[in-house]
Prior knowledge:
Elements: E1 12-21, E2 27-30, H1 32-42, E3 47-53, E4 58-63, H2 67-80, H3 98-107, E5 110-116, E6 119-120, E7 127-132, E8 138-147
Antiparallel strand pairs: 1-8, 2-7, 3-5, 3-8, 4-7, 5-6
The protein binds zinc ion.
Amino acid sequence: MGSKKTEGRNMKSYRKEIWLNTSRRREYINITPIVEEELTKSGIKEGLILVNAMHITSSIFINDDESGLHEDFEKWLEGLAPEKPYSQYKHNYAEDNADAHLKRTIMGREVVVSITEGKMDFGPWEQIFYGEFDGKRKKRILIKIIGE
Ligand code: ZN
């Protein structure tokens, strides 16, 4: 609650690419500890942190780390954009991942989180997830932190 103003002229910037590799086609990975580690390394105490997927068939989103909810995501997304039959999608003339592009679009590309006193300002139960929709291969996420 309340507001706080911080003044300074020493803006820092920190960038890190992280590689992930999932064993399944679809998977949700809680990457909050990875992001926290990079925030600590950055030394930035006040600012903003951006985390985005660098691929068009995976997502970064914030939600609860609860396995039932993750099963609900799977069911909901499969209802909206079922993986099979592959032939139902025009994109699949040469690939089989049209469903993954659609799932990524609805689950989002990135999140931005405020940093105060060296910590991310999360609401209750908020955690950062990597959502993979066409896995079993190496993919990157980007972490960019700006502030001071
Ligand atoms: Zn594709």
